[in-house]
UniProtKB/TrEMBL annotation:
The chain crosses the membrane at residues 25-44, 64-84, 96-118, 124-144, 156-175, 181-201, 213-234, 246-265, 286-309, 315-338, 350-368, 374-400, 421-440, 460-479. It comes from Homoserinibacter gongjuensis. Keywords: Cell membrane, Membrane, Transmembrane, Transmembrane helix, Transport. It comes from the Bacteria. The gene is lmrB. This is MFS transporter.
Length: 498
């Protein structure tokens, strides 16, 4: 039998100064890289309406700039569990940033929409590796008692980048075409790659683990089928679907079921691509369900707001970016406070009021019209950001604290996979509701919709998000802080293959 330890890292007071300095360097450089990839993601959101006009595509097609990115991450992230166990920290970092830089170059030189999508997919492949690498490194190096504080600092980076991204994007788009976004990002990502090659330390302990090719194939078909089916609903509403949505949904559902079954079999031998024993921890499971709701709402609202501001209210891209800036900065400022509150009091004082605030903000968005004042839009976005700022750090920290050391990489990969699939599904569902509502308002398709017809579609989409947010309010009452890993040694032991 194999004995998997469940101990947590030693406290910082017991670390050798050299090791402590190495750990700080690793976390700081990974945070900087995550800042770059998050900045890239949010600059694209503001540019989507301009890309739609330049490349003559509909909102349902334009959503693929976001959906393809998130879907690629969902397909690649399960493989990162294998990469993080098999390879050391530096080569994984170099691989991730190299792919991200290459994808940025492809997107910057894209002559048509298809090549732009390819660039986004390559970018997403690098991003998919970077996120679990950061989470696994933090879990490995930071003791349980300090994780709320560290997660709070991580949330600063993950919030400030989205906050300044739209403003930076708006400024660039005022001075250059949308391809300028990628030309600005290219030297930044290349610089991060060079710094990583020189400075990122190796802090993990690689071990030989097999890669199950069948699991990789099943996960790719499963996740892509489900999200493509949802995305296809928007095209169906416009009469431009390539095939009925139920076909990819059924194929994806069957592939996902087979993927889950195969992981349950392989994890008995510690050979699963994505070890699902993480779900034996109650706090992990509850937090994952909560995260599904949060990501679906967040991604949906994030893609709808720029469309509403530009096409519904006629706001220019720079003003859109500045409108979305205060909310993101607020989330960043809340990070350290939320982390300290979590370490002292647990998640309840944060997630319960946070879920009510988030839901109230989305219900307020259902009142948007073609005459809505900009201050009202800004206020609802700030309130939404306040709610989300109270939610994400406690949910992530609660989920990871419930896991033993042996399952850190699998837990990080699972969180990342669920996060991206839920985000892609939320984006697809919201855009589908937008298309259905626009058609119901009398527009033959979104390309020729009047502002009032478009806002009719937006109203339906925000209404769907508002009802979904009520589930988050219910889920908030079930989040509890784990005081130790919730999976015992016996549950992690597996028969040897030898």
């Amino acid at each position: 039998m194999t004995n998997h330890a469940v101990e947590t890292p030693p406290t910082s007071a017991h670390l050798d100064p050299t090791i402590a300095r190495r750990n700080r360097v690793a976390i700081v450089l990974l945070l900087a890289a995550v800042f770059v990839v998050f900045l890239n993601e949010t600059t694209m959101n503001v540019a989507i309406p301009e890309i739609m006009g330049d490349l003559r595509i509909t909102p349902s097609q334009g959503q693929w700039l976001t959906t393809a990115f998130a879907l690629t991450m969902a397909v690649v992230i399960p493989i990162t569990g294998f990469l993080l166990e098999r390879l050391n920290t530096r080569p994984v970092f170099i691989t991730a940033m190299s792919l991200f830089t290459l994808g940025t170059l492809i997107a910057a030189t894209a002559p048509v929409f298809g090549v732009l999508i390819l660039g986004r997919v390559v970018q997403a492949t690098g991003t998919a590796i970077m996120m679990p690498l950061l989470m696994t490194t933090v879990l490995t190096l930071v003791p349980l008692s300090d994780r709320g504080r560290i997660m709070g600092r991580i949330s600063i980076v993950m919030s400030v980048a989205p906050a300044i991204g739209p403003a930076v994007s708006g400024l660039i788009l005022e001075l250059a075409p949308w391809r300028g976004l990628f030309w600005v990002m290219l030297p930044i990502s290349a610089l991060m790659l060079l710094i990583g090659i020189a400075r990122v330390p190796n802090v993990s302990e690689p071990r030989k683990v097999p890669l199950d090719v069948a699991s990789v194939i099943l996960s790719a078909f499963g996740f892509s089928g489900v999200v493509f089916g949802l995305s296809n609903l928007g095209l169906s509403a416009e009469g431009k679907a390539m095939l009925p949505s139920w076909i990819p949904l059924v194929i994806g559902g069957i592939a996902l079921a087979l993927f889950i079954w195969r992981q349950l079999v392989l994890q008995r031998r510690n050979q699963a691509l994505l070890d699902l024993r993480t779900f034996r921890a109650r706090s992990f499971t509850v937090s994952i369900l909560f995260l599904v709701i949060l990501m679906a709402v967040l991604f949906g609202v994030v893609i709808l707001l720029p469309i509403y501001l530009e096409q519904g209210l006629g706001i220019n891209t720079l003003t859109i970016g500045l409108t979305l800036l205060p909310g993101g900065l607020l989330m960043g400022l809340l990070g350290p406070i939320v982390g300290r509150v979590y370490d002292r009091f647990g998640p309840a004082p944060l997630v319960i009021p946070g879920s009510f605030i988030m839901s109230a903000a989305i219900w307020a968005m259902t009142l948007f019209t073609s005459n809505t004042e900009l201050w009202y839009v800004l206020t609802t976005h700030v309130v939404l950001s306040l709610g989300l700022g109270l939610l994400f750090t406690p949910v992530f920290t609660t989920a990871t604290n419930a896991l033993p050391r042996h399952l850190y990489s699998h837990g990080s990969a699972t969180i990342g996979t669920i996060q991206q699939v839920a985000g892609a599904a939320g984006t697809a569902a919201f855009i589908a509701l937008l298309a259905v509502g626009t058609a119901a308002s009398g527009a033959t398709n979104a390309e020729v919709a009047t502002p009032d017809q478009l806002i009719g579609g937006l109203h339906l989409a925000f209404l769907g998000g508002a009802f979904l947010s009520l589930l988050a309010v219910v889920a908030a009452f079930f989040v509890r802080r784990p005081v130790a890993p919730e999976i015992s040694d016996e549950e992690l032991e597996a028969p040897s293959m030898h």
